[in-house]
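During the reporting period the student researcher (J.K.) took over the structure-prediction task from the postdoctoral fellow and processed the backlog of single-chain submissions. One of the processed entries is reproduced below for the supervisory committee.
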Amino acid sequence: MKTVLITGASSGFGLETAKLFLDRGWRVVATMRTPRADILPVSENLDILALDVTDVDSIRKAVKAAGPIDVLVNNAGIGWMNAVEGTPMDIVRDLFETNSLGTIAMTQAVLPQFRERRQGVVINVTSSVTLMPLPLLSVYTASKAAVNAFTEAAALELGPFDVRMKIVLPGRAPATSFGDTARSRIQQHGGFPEAYASVVQSVFAGWEGQMETEITQADDVAEAIWCAATDPGSPMRIPAGADAVALAG
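J.K. obtained the following structure tokens:
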């Protein structure tokens, strides 16, 4: 039985991915900052572990507790939307600490076992905003684009050890706890700068005109992650969701 370790599995894409891999017979190590057993099916193939990807000791403990794994899904992330002028530097650091450095730290933690066994897959969940830059998402996009670049370069050095690096690029998702958290953080830091009101109105008007069928569902992302994990012939970059597929095409 193969094992997948998923970060950020408490909601959204991570939770849906955990459910899919469980349903398809894998052992799943679902990690989250605050473990919750009530959100996933009861299964002897499921382990739920505490993990904060910004904490080196937390990473070490979780990887040790997980034991040998076959696939790492770096899904944990935080969102943010605002103009550059409206983004405090502590938020910039938080975004890169979780979205970029957390991904690199988790990858470092599992690579020794992958390299020694000469097998393993690292799947990094980034965003389709790296395919088409959008206003108000510059800092968030930068934190995800850094992961894309990291993945592509790491793939070259890990290829000789038969370790695969993959990128899954979700499109815009419907209302999720990820988006709710981002909106809450924006309000806590004073909202959007008044000078950018017209830009904000334009962005939200565009989103309101987008049909539900044109945006990404959590199961789209879970299926893309499954493809990355199980199909050695899959491309390095896999768009997830109708809008992401359109951008990638």
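The committee noted the following: The longest strand covers residues 163-170.
J.K. will present the remaining backlog at the next meeting.
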